[in-house]
Specification:
The chain has eleven helices and ten strands. A hairpin with an 8-residue loop joins strand 6 and strand 7. The strands form three sheets. The chain has a four-stranded mixed β-sheet with strand order 1-4-5-8, with helices on one face. A four-stranded antiparallel β-sheet has the order 2-3-7-6, with no helix packed on it.
């Protein structure tokens, strides 16, 4: 039995990695962040040309028809290169919602446009994890009222997939009457979020939706966020090692000091086992669905903690330079910070994992 990636999977990841190495180099990321762009249209267009925007969309709708593991490999690359693109919501969560719960007409209308990169989709499901006071979407018929916070890929979105308080999913166009979108920056300037306010907004119900489908979408999103942290953490380790080979103190490169060697080794030892955890969590979404929710919780919670350790330690290896915009390490640091909180912080996700295993009420 083969437990490693296939040659095709590695080639796909390498191709996307090479593309992002040029298209999402640090100066381009910095300019996009300073301009407060919703996302980089140039990078997203290139992603779509590679077919990655439709990675989960069936071939009959113009997509690649691949699985969650391949999507996780792509998410790892977006984190590695801090790509300012709407991958998690537009390429993973929204297409999955339409495939699982949409009508034939809805699939035909939207999946080809998502696969081509023509349409960007925001996903509003945070309230299904834990709603803040006053937040949440109520529905009467197919008319929505209320608000949704921390909408993934909301800025620049053309459509939204929205979960109501009962676990039903709705498709809302950004131009819908009565919909107000407020775009908000986060600590990660490469990925803003939105708040949506609904005032008697007419929406399209996804007819096959329900709490189980909403949970699947959340599980997929958590796995992608964990993969994003994996990629960002790997890049921070590599940058720390490269810096340790160049920076000199007392006439020697700091990488020759035992303390610095230990810091770099500890980062690698903590992060590398996470790779198989992310792979398995993504694989389980498709092949072992009964384990999907639990494994997504494990991956999200563990990568949140390991990512924070790597982010802090890499910055420590860089010393004072680690805080400068010249080095740009803060883009990865903040990327990991936002990943930690998206779709539930580690404490909440661990609580869910405990309930799934019967360890908590």
């Amino acid at each position: 039995m083969e437990f490693a990636l296939s040659e095709e999977q590695r080639m796909l990841q390498d191709t996307v990695g090479r593309f992002l190495a040029d298209a999402s180099e640090l100066d381009i990321v910095r300019k996009s962040a300073e301009a407060h762009e919703a996302y980089s249209k140039a990078i997203w267009s290139g992603f779509a040309e590679l077919g990655v925007a439709g990675i989960l969309i069936p071939e009959e709708f113009g997509g690649l028809g691949l699985g969650m593991l391949e999507a996780a490999l792509m998410s790892e690359m977006t984190g590695r290169h801090v790509a300012p693109i709407p991958f998690v919501g537009t390429a993973v969560m929204a297409p999955l919602a339409l495939v699982l719960a949409g009508s034939d007409e809805q699939k035909a209308a939207w999946l080809p446009r998502l696969a081509s990169g023509e349409v960007v989709a925001g996903v509003a499901v945070t309230e299904a994890i834990g709603a803040r006071d006053g937040a949440g979407v109520n529905v009467q018929g197919d008319v929505l009222s209320g608000s949704a916070l921390f909408v993934i890929d909301g800025p620049g979105a053309d459509i939204f997939i929205v979960a109501d308080k009962e676990g039903a999913l709705f498709l809302v166009e950004a131009s819908a009457k009565g919909l107000e979108r407020i775009d908000l920056t986060t600590i990660d300037l490469t990925r803003p979020v939105s708040e949506l306010r609904f005032e008697n907004v007419t929406a399209e119900r996804l007819p096959n939706s329900g709490p189980a489908v909403v949970q699947q979408i959340i599980d997929a999103g958590r796995t992608m966020v964990a993969a994003d942290t994996l990629g960002a953490g790997q890049m921070m380790i590599e940058k720390a090692v490269d810096y340790a080979k160049e920076r000199k103190q007392f006439g020697r490169v700091i990488g020759s000091f035992q303390a610095v060697k230990h810091l770099c080794a500890e980062m690698a030892a903590e992060l590398e086992p996470c790779r198989s955890l992310v792979w398995y969590a993504a694989y389980a979404q498709d092949a072992i669905p009964e384990e999907g929710a639990l494994m997504s919780c494990h991956a999200k919670a563990h990568l949140s903690e390991v990512g924070r350790f790597v982010a802090r330690t890499s910055t420590e290896v860089h010393g004072g330079m680690g805080f400068t915009d010249l080095v740009g390490l803060h883009y990865w640091f903040k990327r990991i910070g936002l990943d930690r909180q998206l779709l539930g912080g580690p404490e909440r996700v661990r609580e869910e994992a405990a309930r799934l295993q019967g360890w908590a009420a």
